[in-house]
Specification:
The protein is α/β, with parallel strands linked by helices and about 375 residues long. Helices cover about 40% and strands about 20% of the residues. A hairpin with a 4-residue loop joins β2 and β3. Bound molecules: calcium ion. The site of calcium ion has 5 residues, from loops.
Length: about 375
């Protein structure tokens, strides 16, 4: 069996309600998907994280290397793509193109072998994965605080046991928001904050010191992803767990983050950091540093399914009788792409989502939705 065709799609949605975070505003959501087909018509879906048109160009660059290969030999194909891009892309969007193709190959291989990806990754340690709600972005409103409180209450009412909110607008504003959200959801729901690297070290230290009484489970991307020294110093000077890595790429990138002891929790994006092949290796490296991964996930059901299978297969550190649950990010911000493009839809119940049991990733793309959202150029 050979790979016969690779198709890349840029899907786009104009948001009903634009939202922003500490770096920029979203008017639209745009994602690049890839479909890898075998000679017998079996196919796998993948997804890249990052600017979709650039990811698509990357996929088109890599496609001739993949075409004609044996779809069962996923890691060998990964190495071929990596070697061809290493001279130009030790990190960045071309790695997202590799990631997208790699995820599609895992999906395809699972379908060809009749096994879910989590089994191929080494085995299902858990049938359900605990998820946290990502939302609480900023919107143009006269009452931002009220909007955040209302949204946080909604996630709590939906059954989420952990919620992550955006910060990074300035220490005083962020404190006001975090205190209000904590008060709204009560003490029993986990709360995390994500600055998307908007703080200086002194601001991050000030903010961390002041939110410690709020019981924050982790402080995500406090500093620039380039500031490894800053991460290490912040981590030494706060009791709050520091999370990061969604802007990090490949095993070599995570080696820097982990060996310099920058984070308590590593957050590779499977669709960006090198696909399932490489993030499985990143998880193994992290375990050598007694660091757990909570994958970053911000895309369609394809990205989320990849996250579910990977997290299902993880061993957590340190081992103990009563293990904390593994965790995965579940984006709740407005996304018709996430909510309508793939099927079946993932349902959260009691703060957990079932890991698919069907061969491959266990999700398919709805052809009508694909046609509706695909950009023509
Ligand atoms: Ca983030």
């Amino acid at each position: 069996m050979k790979i016969s065709r690779i198709e890349a799609y840029v899907v786009e949605q104009r948001l009903d309600r634009p939202f922003y975070f500490s770096q920029f505003e979203f008017q639209t959501r745009q994602i690049c998907l890839v479909k890898v087909l075998a000679e017998d018509g079996t196919y796998g879906w993948g997804e890249g994280y990052g600017p979709a048109t650039v990811v698509k160009a990357g996929i088109e660059f890599l496609a001739p290397l993949v075409s004609g290969e044996d779809p069962l030999q996923v890691e060998a194909i990964w190495s071929k793509m990596h070697l061809r891009s290493l001279d130009y892309a030790r990190r960045g969007v071309l790695v997202a193109a590799i990631s997208a193709i790699d995820i599609a190959l895992w999906d395809l291989r699972g379908k060809l072998l009749g096994q879910p990806v989590s089994v191929l990754l080494g085995g299902r340690r858990r049938e359900q994965v605990r998820v946290y709600a990502t939302g609480l972005y900023f919107t143009e409103t006269d009452d931002q605080l009220g909007a955040l409180v209302e949204e946080a209450r909604l996630y709590a009412a939906q059954g989420f046991s952990a919620i992550k909110m955006k910060v990074g607008l300035g220490v005083e504003t962020d404190l006001r928001h975090a205190r209000a959200v904590r008060q709204a959801i009560g003490a029993d729901i986990e709360l995390m904050v994500d600055a998307n690297h908007a703080y200086s070290l002194s601001e991050a230290l000030s903010f961390a010191g002041q939110i410690e009484p709020l019981g924050i489970s982790f402080f995500e991307e406090p500093l620039s992803p380039e500031d490894y020294d800053g991460y290490r110093e912040l981590r030494q000077r706060t009791s709050i767990a520091i999370a990061g890595g969604e802007c990090e790429y490949l095993l070599a990138g995570f080696r820097q983050l982990l060996s310099q002891r920058c984070v308590d929790i590593a957050q590779p994006d499977i669709c960006g950091a090198g696909g399932l092949t490489e993030v499985k290796r990143i998880a193994a490296l992290a375990s050598a540093f007694q660091t757990n991964i909570i994958p970053h996930s911000w895309g369609t059901g394809i990205a989320f399914a990849a996250g579910l299978h990977l997290v299902s297969s993880l061993d957590l550190a340190p081992g103990r009788l009563r293990m904390p649950e593994a965790l995965l990010e579940m984006d709740r911000s407005e996304s018709a792409l996430r909510d309508t493009l793939t099927r079946p839809q993932f349902k959260q119940e009691g703060g957990r989502v079932a890991v698919p049991t069907a061969p491959g990733l266990g999700v398919d793309v709805d052809p009508e939705s694909l046609a509706r959202f695909t950009r023509s150029s």
